[in-house]
Amino acid sequence: MKLRCLDCAHTFPPTLRYACAACGGILEVVGESGLEPPPGLPAGMWRHAARLGVTDPAAIVSLGEGETPLLRAPRIERALPDFEGEIWLKDETRNPSGSFKDRAISAGISKAIELGARGVVCASSGNAGASVAAYAARAGMGAIIIVPAHTPDGKVTQIAAHGAVLLKVPGHYSRSYDLAAALAERHGYANLTTTFINPWAVDGLKLVGPEIRAQLGGRVPDMVLIPTGSGPLVEGVARGFAGAARPPRLVAVQAEGCAPIVRAFEEGAEAVTAWGMPDTIASGISDPLIGYERDGTRTLRLVRRSGGTAVAVSDDALRAAMRLLARGEGLYAEPTGASPIAALPRLLAEGLVPRGAVVVCLITGHGFKDGRAYQEMPARIHAVPAPDDLAAVARLCDAALAEKE
Ligand SMILES: *Cc1c(COP(=O)(O)O)cnc(C)c1O
Ligand SMILES: [Zn+2]
Fold it and tell me: Which residues in this protein are found as N6-(pyridoxal phosphate)lysine (predicted)?
């Protein structure tokens, strides 16, 4: 096992290293541990420990991440008039801290412990921080989490609950990113920021693909729709299907209020440039990439290489998608988690979804983390001042049930 630079192919021994010493490029993990899955771990992705990067079983920190359900979405299929095919939801809200970030953090913190780290630092738009806080608590190690000041309450509460030191920084996410790198160096902590900075964490995302394939009975989907910030999850999905005869087309979904990768894709640009101040309800993908634009460029290349596309969705489309997921399919997602559903009508309208396509949508984050948008939607909530008057309450229910949605 080693680390290799994506740009100049320099290789380095498997250590905690966040960029190529020769050219500053992004590093990736090459090789696998071959580790026998250690007994006593909770069910989940470490069943495939052999494919991950940890060689010391005692270093593994797991809360049972990965191996999430794949659910068919019949009501969403019916809600899309021109759609013929299969829509599947990969329910990543079911990870221990409520987002797919747990896959990356479990892999990243375990390798950091194996390599002697005493603590961990993470800059986050919320979910990675919540994950790091939970896994650091599990490991009994110190954690410093840095988030933008406007991070949703649910995520802030979650991070604080696990006892992490939580720093709130004004402005966009990229400012938190710089501070995390500096603090990691100062304290000698591992940096688990989930951009492309930590190759061991990114490596942990590659099992999503094989899981989906197994859950589809060995079929490879035609398209995978991925909520995209800087893009490690896109990389994970791409790697997970590498070697398939016909790998899926990857669709990077961003919010109109923060869409640096979509903009570059639509302009036919070679490189991604940073966004200004994000303005969207999708906090999980509010990443303007300032200072690490190269991460976006990496993702742009992966999307193009797959024959896929990049689409931006409006906040209104996100709200409609959240509602459809919650009312139609029983899934409670944060705005970012619903973004693939919001992208479907656009992709259909542009003729990008072939007849009979098997489409997988990654539902990346839980509604518990950010329920504000739901609170503003029409709902069938009624005050019942006199619960003893059964006849009146029953009439109220009849009327409410009969209401047209
Ligand atoms: C972080 C996050 C993303 C974006 O993932 P990247 O790998 O950074 O592109 C998508 N959805 C949710 C819910 C997230 O927390
Ligand atoms: Zn290099």
Answer: 101
Among the atoms of ligand 1, which is closest to the Cα of residue 232? 7
Q: What is the CATH number of domain 70-98+202-371?
A: 3.40.50.1100
CA dihedral angle for residue 98, residue 91, residue 53, residue 3, rounded to 10 degrees:
-90
Confirm or reject: Cβ of 336 under 6 Å from ligand 1.
yes
The whole-angstrom distance between residue 169's C-alpha and the CA centroid of its chain comes to 22
Question: Ligand 2 center to residue 197 CA distance, Å?
Answer: 14
In the predicted model, is pLDDT for residue 172 greater than 90?
no
Rounded Cα distance between 249 and 228, Å, is 15
pLDDT of residue 131: 98
Average pLDDT over residues 111-127: 96
What is the tens place of the pLDDT at every residue in 325-382?
999 999 999 999 999 999 999 999 999 999 999 999 999 999 999 999 999 999 999 9
Boundaries of every domain in the chain: 70-98+202-371
Q: Is 364 in the pocket of ligand 1 (CB under 6 A)?
A: yes
Whether the predicted pLDDT of 252 surpasses 90 = yes
CA of 5 to the centre of ligand 2 (A): 5
Quote the tokens at residue 109: 């913190």
Residue found by looking up tokens 């302009």 in the block = 267
The answer, yes or no, to whether any atom of ligand 1 lies below 6 A from the CB of 194, is yes
